[in-house]
Write a structure and sequence with these properties.
This protein is α/β, with parallel strands linked by helices. It is built from 11 helices and 14 strands. The protein has helices at residues 18-29, 46-55, 69-78, 93-98, 100-121, 154-172, 206-214, 242-258, 275-286, 310-316, 324-337; strands at residues 9-13, 33-38, 61-63, 83-86, 125-131, 177-183, 185-187, 221-224, 236-237, 239-241, 261-267, 273-274, 292-295, 304-305. α1 (18-29) crosses α8.
Length: 347
């Protein structure tokens, strides 16, 4: 068993992305050493420059693809990591339906090269970004970790596949410490308004779409159906502040540094909000009105999805603390200060 050193060195894959950059900030604040590897396929290096500005600490950054074996071997030869937090992956459900091979190659292929590199370097501690999408259309809500794994799209199937690979790895060698985190719906931004979600093209997810309507980049929101079996007929989800999520990674990291074993936790608030409730909350936070129209249901959508987060509290002592109003306020601060995301300003 390794005693935690606050100076433990952590490799963060996908650390320039939305959740990764917020987690890097919290890791540095907690005293961990961080190296980021990211191929910038869905991120800007500016996110890390801004984390540096916020923390006063330079962040070693390697621009590489996880599937590039020689780059990964070199990365592990040049550094002595204590653990890995693995965010890197493609995440758009719709795109995964039209480009399944690219999703399997990137998400599963990238993870395999990462795990090979870790085994070769003798590093057996990893925290992995899975998703509530592995539950598909759940039989009941709230969803606990024992619920059936039945993803309904290629993206979700790549996550379920990686979970199986990690299970096999833990079985093969119990000295591995593996934490699998099933996130519900991350939204919001760091309180500073300097980092946040910066989707490329048309946002797939609700909160970034609403934020772009509020800031005037899009005319109106399409609400995908008002005939769901929920309190107002619109889809209900468990929105989770990205800073709470980032802190969940710090807690998870501490756990994998402390003891071997394989565990899986939901990271969500345990409370669901409908699309109309999120629109109203965002209107309050921004002082702007959000024009919307009800359109047909989106293919593959489900009525309700929210977590039973009790296991994360019991295992990690983690619970989400930031309410929906704060998620909207912080998301709005980021969006209004950076109307075009990281492209809005230099530096
Ligand atoms: P993101 O796209 O902002 O971050 C992912 C990062 O990984 C990006 O910076 C991208 O450039 C990088 N990347 C992708 N493929 C890579 C590769 N082969 N090699 C190196 N870098 C690569 O996404 P995010 O929202 O920060 O999500 C992080 C992780 O959390 C992803 O694995 C995602 O599937 C998972 N997740 C996200 C959500 C969500 O709603 N945002 C929900 C559940 C799970
Ligand atoms: N949604 C919507 N319009 C949009 C995007 C999303 O009405 O432009 C709805 C969607 O149908 C779901 C909820 O908002 O009920 C959350 O969708 P998101 O894609 O953010 O998360 P997911 O469905 O993947 O949990």
């Amino acid at each position: 068993m390794m005693k935690e050193r606050q100076s433990a060195q952590i490799l963060v894959t996908g650390g320039a992305g939305y959740i990764g950059s917020h987690t890097v900030l919290e890791l540095i604040t907690a005293g961990f050493g961080v190296v980021v590897v990211d191929n910038l396929s869905n991120a800007s290096e500016q996110s890390l420059q801004r984390v540096t500005e916020l923390t006063g600490q330079a962040i070693p950054f390697v621009n590489a693809d996880l599937r590039d074996r020689s780059a990964m071997v070199a990365l592990f030869q040049m550094n002595r990591f204590d653990a890995v937090i693995h965010f890197a992956g493609l995440k758009a459900v719709g795109e995964s339906v039209s480009k399944p091979v690219a999703y399997w190659d990137n998400n599963v292929g990238g993870t395999l090269v990462l795990l090979e590199s870790m085994e070769r370097a003798g590093i057996r501690r990893i925290v992995f970004s899975s998703s509530a999408t592995v539950y598909g259309d759940p039989q009941r809500v709230p969803i606990d970790e024992a619920a059936a794994i039945q993803p309904t799209n290629p993206y979700g199937r790549t996550k379920a596949c990686i979970e199986s690979i990690l299970t096999d790895l833990a079985t093969s060698d119990p000295s591995w410490a593996i934490g699998t985190l099933r996130y519900f719906n991350p939204v919001g931004a760091h309180l500073s308004g300097r980092i946040g979600e910066d989707p490329r093209g048309l946002p797939n997810n609700l909160m970034p779409f609403i934020a772009q309507v509020a800031v005037g980049r899009r005319e109106r929101l399409s609400v995908f159906g008002d005939d769901w079996d929920t309190r107002d007929g619109t889809g209900l989800r468990d929105y989770l502040h990205v800073v709470d999520l980032a802190l969940g990674h710090v807690d998870s990291l501490r756990r994998v540094l402390q003891s071997p074993g394989h565990w899986t936790v939901n990271l969500g608030t345990g409370t669901g909000y409908t699309v109309l409730e999120v629109i109203r909350a965002f209107e309050r936070a921004s002082g702007r009105s959000i024009p919307f129209e009800i359109v047909n249901r989106r293919s593959g959508d489900i009525a309700s999805c929210y977590a039973d987060p009790a296991h994360a509290l019991a295992l990690l002592g983690w619970r989400a603390e930031r309410p929906l109003d704060q998620m909207c306020e912080d998301h709005w601060r980021w969006q209004s200060n950076n109307p075009s995301g990281f492209a809005s300003t230099q530096g």
